[in-house]
Amino acid sequence: MLDVAITRRFGDFQLDAAFEVPVGVTAVLGRSGAGKSTLVASVAGLTRPDQGRVALGGETLFDAARRIDLPPRKRRIGVVFQDSRLFPHFSVRTNLLFGRRRRKEAVAPAFEEVVDTLGIGALLDRRPRSLSGGERQRVAIGRALLSGPRALLFDEPLAALDAERKAEILPFLETLVREIALPVLYVTHALEEARRLAERLVVLDGGRVIAAGPVEEAVAAAGLASAGDRLLDAATIEAVVVERDEAYGLTGLAIGQHVVWVPGLIGERGDAARLRFLARDVALALDPPQRSSVRNVLPGVIRGVKRGTGPYASITVDIGGAVLRAEVTRRALDELGLAPGKMVYALVKSVAVSRA
Amino acid sequence: MEAAAAALGLGPEELSAIRLSLLVASVGTLATLPFAIAIALALARGRFPGKTLLDGLVHLPLVMPPVVTGYLLLLAFGRRGPLGHALEACCGLVFSFRWTGAALAAGIMGFPLMVRAIRLSLEAVDRRLEDAAATLGAGRLGVLFAVTLPLALPGLLAGLVLAFAKALGEFGATITFVSNIPGETRTLPAAIYTLTQTPGGDAAALKLVGVAIALSLAALIASEMLARRIATRIAG
Asked: I need a labelling partner for A23 at 20 to 30 A (CA). Which of A67, A180, A309, B213 fits?
């Protein structure tokens, strides 16, 4: 069991994640900027969290309060990096044996077995430079396995590969993770990979865990797209409970000087809550709508506009104290003349707001 | 070598100067290499107060008049100098008016060039590879010897050759520190200087000048070839 509970702050961003990784595969899913890389580096011992604790099978690897911080080599956590990081001056064989030679006491699978499972027997005398991306990743996986790890960490191992290479390597991964009886943390931004490889899922957004549990349960809890393989664009905003409408079962939460109405009675006045606004549930208008069912109309200023390749555009709106994200069609963007600096009203249906 | 020397018309004295120069430059650069690596590591990786000062101190021999360096060496490493005295007492190592002193002067003069080249190549080493090595169980020294230094090898070699070439040509600090004793401290440049001061020595001086040029060129070409071989070995 790998136990992680850490916080790490840089500038505006704060990673604040706590979860457990039992034996088997736990995927951590998050968009870029969700804090995945920091998480991986913290668990591996390559960066030091500000607060918290990392423990593996009862042994404390990091504990800020007790000033424990084991160096990476003593953690015995095998890491497979996105960019494989094979040593260019060694042959594939020497790369594979790098960890094993340094941890003679560790229990590691047999060399031949790993080489066979990964199908890299023909590559042993070659140099990393001459390998394809998929071959490199297979060697990197073998190298981590042979170092006798007590847990495995995959940091987006397929993200740098094209679809064909991914398809080539996924079957190897599937066989492998089923065979090894270790806690495996698989970090990815692709839900499809998590579904294929993991039993449990931790969804990370804006540096926080927004859902965790068995894969499909976590997917549902996090409000992930059912068909797409990516996390939906969303904004998570801190708010404070200011009003409770018991007759209608609504709670009013303050964001800056605005009040947003959310279904359900949440906490007491003064309680803090985090709200999650999916970009596709936020509409923009140039005038405040008259006689509309939309309860939340938030005036703001457009900060940024990002045109996608498809029919969509992503817009960030500063509503004073918080930033919302809205997904609109490119046509709406052009017809309304939406551009940075423009005053708009963000419309959010109450039923679309959820607590994060 | 004697036969080749005779063919070139070099006498025993010139020959001894060439031999001495090669010895002095080799020993001088090789002996300072570990120190250069340590200081280059500190400058490339370390964060400590006084780093700028250390950087400046290392570069001093490059910008000071060689005579000043030589005189400082004489004060520190002469028989009565604090360091010279201590080294003689503990290890029987004597520098003043010996070829070892010439090697020390040569090493010191080439030191800034060596540190600079090694530092640059260390800074170019991919730190992410070092991280990967650490997760595989390598300690600090393990990472250094298995990953960092092998990857910095071309720069290490370039530094070594630059320092060697500089050491071969070193004159001012050497002559100030250990004088110009035939067979002991009369290196190639000192021999050339002596010949130019001797009536009728011009022809012999010119021959030695040719030898000096040939040696420098050979060192540069050898390093270029080695660097290329290492680069292809690293790149695979």
From this structure: A67
A100: nearest CA partner in chain B: B136
Cα distance between residue B219 and residue B201, in whole Å: 27
Contact residues on chain B for A73, CB-CB shorter than 8 A: 134-139, 142
Is A129 close to B233, i.e. CB distance below 8 A? no
What is the three-class DSSP state of B209?
helix
Count other Cβ atoms within 10 Å, centred on residue A238: 13
- Look up the CATH number of the domain holding residue B94: 1.10.3720.10
What would be the CATH architecture of the domain defined by A234-355? Beta Barrel (2.40)
CB contact under 8 A, A102 and B132: no
Residue of A nearest to B140 (CA): A73
The pair phi, psi for residue A200, each rounded to 5°, is -120, 155
Structural tokens at position A270: 């003064």
Integer Cα distance of A42 and A22 in angstroms: 18
Q: Name the domain count of chain B.
A: 1
Q: Is the pLDDT of residue B236 over 60?
A: no
How much is the average pLDDT of A299-314? 83
Query: How distant is the alpha carbon of residue A239 from its chain centre?
Result: 23
Q: A97 vs chain B: nearest CA distance in angstroms?
A: 10
Separation of alpha carbons A121 and B189, rounded Å: 58
C-alpha A37/C-alpha A56 separation (Å) is 19
ipTM of this predicted complex?
0.81
Residues of B in contact with A98 (CB under 8 A): 133, 136, 138, 146
CA-to-CA distance for A187 and A156, rounded, in angstroms?
A: 5
* Domain extents in chain A: 2-221, 234-355
Q: Are A284 and A338 in contact (CB under 8 A)?
A: yes
Q: Which amino acid is at A226?
A: S
Q: Write down the residue that tokens 């549930």 correspond to.
A: A281
- The residue of chain A with its CA nearest to that of B230 is A89
- Give the number of A-B residue pairs with CB atoms closer than 8 Å: 73
Residue A226 has pLDDT above 50, yes or no: no
CATH code that applies to domain A2-221: 3.40.50.300
Range of the domain at B44: 2-235
pLDDT at residue A352 in the model: 78
